[in-house]
Amino acid sequence: MTDATPEQIEPGLVRLLAPNPSPLTGPGTNSYLLGRDRLCVIDPGPDDPAHLSALLAGIDGRPVEAILVTHAHRDHSALAGALSQATGATVFGFGAATAGRSAVMQRLASAGLGGGEGLDLDFAPDETLQDGDQIALENSPLTALHLPGHMAGHLCFAWRDTVFSGDLVMGWSSTLISPPDGDLAAFRRSCARLRARAPRRLHPGHGDPVDDPTARIDWLIAHRAEREAQILHTLRAGPCDASDLTARLYADVPPALHPAARRNVLAHLVDLMERHLVVPSGGDLADARFSLT
């Protein structure tokens, strides 16, 4: 799928691709129209007039009961206000962009650890959702699942035997985890919880449907374990900061992606620090040099 042409991927489920391809969004953000006579929109996408027009064309005058946002990154949430104004639908989400941060991440943010890539600081849902809340939709309700990791307030939505997985599990790449918004320990727990549900299929925020969720989640968990092992192995040779580690571990990755890779490395270092496996030295944590304990 390369344009905003509606694509039916399940009975009663249509996907529209937002025109925002990039190294971090893959082919673009997936917006979903769920339902037949009465609709729910999942992840309206970036604030783009062409995408708004495509969504309204797909809605085709049918009532929209809810606009659900998996998380407050601009490529998922920024169009929510305009779409709500056009349709009269209520916007649901976990909360504001920084809602749900763990005590560890709140402490790091207070200490000055920067992040905030792509945060939609203007996002304010009309109604907030907690883990387990249900959203009525014709004969098939959705269940909100609070599955943080990529972002503290990240929601997935279970529908029948499938799950809309947002950016927790994507169809084209591993997930960016950038503290204090992202949390690697929470990501592992969320992946394990999603795997335990054994969904038939995942509908991700980016990329094609995931038809073998167990294999995909296992790969994501193994990928993080491998990266952790690489970091610990490198630190055995002496202290490094996140930039040093990124240059060594991502040598085969285009330099344009190194800033995002560095945030993933920092997420690992924060996780290792909280597990008392490494210790930082220096002032700002983002630029600190880490040593094995």
Write a concise synopsis of the structure shown:
The protein is an alpha/beta fold and 293 residues long. The chain has 2 domains: 7-222, Ribonuclease Z/Hydroxyacylglutathione hydrolase-like (Metallo-beta-lactamase, Chain A); 231-292, Arc Repressor Mutant, subunit A (Orthogonal Bundle).
Tell me the structural class.
alpha/beta
Return residue spans where pLDDT drops below 50 for at least 5 consecutive residues. Answer: none
Helix content: 25-40%
Strand content: 15-25%
Please tally the β strands and state the result.
14
CATH class of the largest domain: Alpha Beta
CATH topology label of the largest domain? Metallo-beta-lactamase, Chain A
The coarse silhouette is elongated
Spell out the helices and strands N to C.
EEEEHEHHEHEEEEEHEHHHEE
- Provide mean pLDDT, rounded: 95
Domain Metallo-beta-lactamase: 28-206
InterPro entries: LACTB2_WH, Metallo-B-lactamas, RibonucZ/Hydroxyglut_hydro, Sec-metab_biosynth-thioest, WH-like_DNA-bd_sf
Protein name: Metallo-beta-lactamase family protein
Organism: Limimaricola cinnabarinus LL-001
Structural features, described:
With 293 residues, this protein is of the alpha/beta class. It folds into two domains: 7-222, Metallo-beta-lactamase, Chain A; 231-292, Arc Repressor Mutant, subunit A (Orthogonal Bundle), CATH 1.10.10. It is built from eight helices and 14 strands. The chain has helices at residues 49-59, 74-77, 80-87, 103-110, 184-197, 213-235, 242-249, 258-274, and strands at residues 7-10, 13-17, 30-34, 39-42, 64-68, 90-93, 127-128, 134-135, 142-146, 155-159, 162-166, 201-204, 278-281, 289-292. The strands form three sheets. A seven-stranded mixed β-sheet has the order 1-2-3-4-5-6-7, with helices on one face. Strands 8-9-10-11-12 form a five-stranded mixed β-sheet, with no helix packed on it. Helix 5 (184-197) packs antiparallel against helix 6, helix 6 packs across helix 8 (258-274) and helix 7 (242-249) packs across helix 8 (258-274). The longest helix has 23 residues, at 213-235. It is elongated and about 60 Å long. Residues 28-206 form the Metallo-beta-lactamase domain. It comes from Limimaricola cinnabarinus LL-001.
